[in-house]
Amino acid sequence: MLSQRSHYVPFCHEKQKSIVDFPAAVSPPSTAVVYDQHGPPDTVTRVTEIPPVKITENDVCVRMLAAPINPADINRIEGVYPVRPQVPTIGGWEGVGEVHSFGSAVKTLSHGDLVIHSAYIPGTWQTYVVEDQSLWHKIDKSTPIEYAATCSVNPLSALRMLEDFVALKPGDTIVQNGATSIVGQCVIQLARVRGIHSINIIRDKPGSDEVKEKLMKLGADLVFTESELDVKSIKSLLDDIPEPRLGLNCIGGNAATLVIKLLRQGGTMVTYGGMSKKPITISTSSFIFKDVSLRGFWLQEKNLDQAQYRCSIDYLLALARAGRLKYEMELVPFNDFHTALEKAMGKQGSRKKQVLKF
């Protein structure tokens, strides 16, 4: 039987119960997005009620405020993600909420505190979540909820890739494809904060000049379409910017090849996605004469300890509050879940990141 511990919650258009409506030892009933089998997300998901659960002495009951629909969430529902929760289960792996009630042994959190998960646990697409106090991380109340809800996947991935593979220093350069993605936008801004140059590759499509302008405003040094890099002397395009020490690839195919070509001697390319579904092709000479390294990154397998995780999150959210880390999102009422899901699946064209607001 599903419970708020395995992840469920109520519609935002319903009147929320106040703390005094329920005994402290029991959570309020919850409304959640559930799927009983893997398959097309728009057909296998349903919204249902979840009964109250007992709150033990170390538990914290959190009223969810916002949670995004990430591509990985869709892949998990489809059953194609490497880690698949046992079904039936509740969707969502990221989100923010406020403390509603807690057990007698909880001393570090108070009613109304803003919190996010400090571990990757499924079930954020619900109105109330009950978990052990160790799994919640208190954040600054002035943080905009859409950034609090989305900081622990895409921005954290960008930060960890910039820090964990190459010891970058001010004046160094990185190159990336997929620069318009949220990870890509975060990479640009985090690099700028650290005095690191960024070279960015985007797809050839109408409106590329506007895209370039947008990325330059975020702090990009150079932005090229793939076709603009289809030249014999690719590095002649870099002006006075040093050759990149680190490359980031989320596309594969030709876009990955371009990243490799731009890398300096001994450079490293990190792959964290493969949106083109095309293989990465690298020449023998890139290995022999350039000593290029190819690495992979999957945030869920990073196994960050809680101290490192919390420090990273606090750093990212401080930048967001200061306006130095930003990306476009669309807040959608929870009762419009299936509309938001269609947008997130690309069924209504290119859309901003969909964030459910409870």
TrEMBL record:
* GO biological process per UniProt: fatty acid biosynthetic process; fatty acid metabolic process
CDD domains named in the record: ETR
User: What are the Enoyl reductase (ER) domain coordinates in residue numbering?
Assistant: 39-356
Q: Which UniProt keywords apply?
A: Fatty acid biosynthesis, Fatty acid metabolism, Lipid biosynthesis, Lipid metabolism, Mitochondrion, NADP, Oxidoreductase, Transit peptide
This entry's Enzyme Commission designation comes to 1.3.1.104
User: Which PANTHER family does its entry note?
Assistant: ENOYL-[ACYL-CARRIER-PROTEIN] REDUCTASE, MITOCHONDRIAL, TRANS-2-ENOYL-COA REDUCTASE, MITOCHONDRIAL-RELATED
Q: Give the gene name.
A: LOC107828176
Membership in a protein family: Belongs to the zinc-containing alcohol dehydrogenase family. Quinone oxidoreductase subfamily.
Pfam family of the protein (one): ADH_N
Q: What is this protein called?
A: Enoyl-[acyl-carrier-protein] reductase, mitochondrial
- Compartment(s) where it occurs, according to its Swiss-Prot or TrEMBL record: Mitochondrion
A Gene Ontology cellular component where this protein is annotated is: mitochondrion
What are the GO MF terms of this UniProt record? Answer: enoyl-[acyl-carrier-protein] reductase (NADPH) activity
